[in-house]
Amino acid sequence: MTTAPTSLSACTRCKRLYSEMLSNAAMWNVNFFQGYPVGLLCPSCQTPDEFLEAETNTANLEGTELVTLSSVDPVKRAEMVVEMIYKSAQSVIKTHREKAERTGETHVRVNVETWATEATAGVLVIQGQPESVRASARGIAMDYINGALGLSKHAAKV
Ligand SMILES: [Zn+2]
Fold first, then answer.
1. β partners of residue 32
2. Rounded to the nearest whole angstrom, what is the distance from the C-alpha of residue 10 to the centroid of ligand 1?
């Protein structure tokens, strides 16, 4: 059996046919390998993690990258979302620090998980996404907060 070239007219998982006329056409992902399109993924077959993580962690995909079929540069858009999460996390840290200063506390009780939830709540594009996407976003925020506060993962749980 010879290896058939991947058809770019249908979803690689469910074989649903792609058409530019579809109302969700812009949400289909095209999978590139070394610059060549090798597969399509329809919106129903993209797990929320693929939707967010595949776009934010292109470095982990070893030469492949997922790009939506919309005109927006998706790498740039993913970077912007991560940047928004970082900015929001920064302001959450600042708010808690200032609150502690106002009330005269000498140290701030850190709940990284709660702060990460507050940080993602401040990023509008994440609202309305499935829970697993918001969970990924919280993970990004938690990593950032841990890093910003110089916390190790187990210390953050105290
Ligand atoms: Zn599909």
1. 37, 65
2. 8
28, 58 contact by CB (below 8 A): no
Give the distance (Å) from ligand 1 centre to CA of residue 46: 7
Q: How far is the CA of 81 from the centre of ligand 1 (A)?
A: 25
Helix, strand, coil share (%) of the chain residues, nearest 5: 50, 10, 35
User: How far away, in angstroms, is 146 Cα from ligand 1 center?
Assistant: 37
Q: How does pLDDT run along the chain (158 residues), one tens digit per residue?
A: 444 444 467 888 898 888 777 777 777 777 766 666 677 888 788 776 666 544 444 333 344 444 443 444 566 667 767 888 888 898 888 888 888 778 777 666 778 888 999 888 877 667 767 788 888 889 999 988 888 887 755 444 44
End-to-end CA distance of the chain: 57
Q: What is the pTM of this model?
A: 0.48
